[in-house]
Amino acid sequence: KAGQVEFTTLWGKFKINPETGLQLGHDMVVMMWIEGKKYIVWPPEAAERDPVYPRPAWGEIPG
Q1: Is 7 among the domain residues?
Q2: Disulfide check for 48: which of 2, 17, 39, 54 has CB 3.0–4.6 Å away?
Q3: Alpha helices (runs of H) in 1-63, residue ranges in sequence order
Protein backbone atom coordinates (compact mmCIF):
# COMPACT_ATOMS: atom_id res chain seq x y z
CA LYS A 1 0.00 0.00 0.00
CA ALA A 2 1.15 3.53 -0.74
CA GLY A 3 0.66 4.57 2.90
CA GLN A 4 3.37 2.12 3.96
CA VAL A 5 6.00 3.33 1.50
CA GLU A 6 8.99 5.18 2.94
CA PHE A 7 12.30 5.82 1.18
CA THR A 8 14.97 8.46 0.59
CA THR A 9 15.10 10.46 -2.65
CA LEU A 10 17.51 13.09 -3.96
CA TRP A 11 15.32 15.68 -2.21
CA GLY A 12 15.07 13.89 1.13
CA LYS A 13 12.78 11.41 2.84
CA PHE A 14 9.52 10.36 1.13
CA LYS A 15 6.63 9.07 3.22
CA ILE A 16 2.86 9.22 2.77
CA ASN A 17 0.21 9.65 5.46
CA PRO A 18 -2.00 6.57 4.95
CA GLU A 19 -5.13 8.44 6.08
CA THR A 20 -4.80 11.63 4.01
CA GLY A 21 -2.43 10.64 1.20
CA LEU A 22 -0.30 13.73 1.94
CA GLN A 23 3.50 13.66 1.78
CA LEU A 24 4.96 13.62 5.32
CA GLY A 25 8.65 12.92 5.07
CA HIS A 26 9.85 16.17 3.55
CA ASP A 27 8.84 19.82 3.68
CA MET A 28 8.78 21.48 0.28
CA VAL A 29 10.21 24.93 -0.37
CA VAL A 30 9.39 27.53 -3.02
CA MET A 31 12.39 29.03 -4.78
CA MET A 32 12.52 32.17 -6.90
CA TRP A 33 15.22 33.57 -9.17
CA ILE A 34 15.72 37.21 -8.13
CA GLU A 35 18.32 39.39 -9.85
CA GLY A 36 20.10 36.32 -11.23
CA LYS A 37 20.31 34.42 -7.92
CA LYS A 38 18.15 31.58 -6.56
CA TYR A 39 16.49 32.16 -3.16
CA ILE A 40 14.13 30.21 -0.92
CA VAL A 41 11.04 32.42 -0.48
CA TRP A 42 8.69 30.00 1.34
CA PRO A 43 8.04 28.71 3.97
CA PRO A 44 8.75 31.76 6.15
CA GLU A 45 10.96 29.83 8.59
CA ALA A 46 13.29 28.83 5.73
CA ALA A 47 12.97 31.98 3.57
CA GLU A 48 16.20 33.71 2.58
CA ARG A 49 14.25 36.79 1.44
CA ASP A 50 10.74 37.92 0.57
CA PRO A 51 9.32 36.92 -2.82
CA VAL A 52 9.03 39.52 -5.56
CA TYR A 53 5.32 39.91 -6.28
CA PRO A 54 3.89 40.82 -8.61
CA ARG A 55 6.58 39.61 -10.96
CA PRO A 56 8.01 42.40 -13.13
CA ALA A 57 7.38 42.31 -16.88
CA TRP A 58 10.18 40.66 -18.92
CA GLY A 59 11.58 43.99 -20.09
CA GLU A 60 11.75 45.29 -16.51
CA ILE A 61 13.76 42.41 -15.00
CA PRO A 62 17.35 43.47 -14.18
CA GLY A 63 20.29 41.42 -15.43
Answers
A1: yes
A2: 39
A3: none
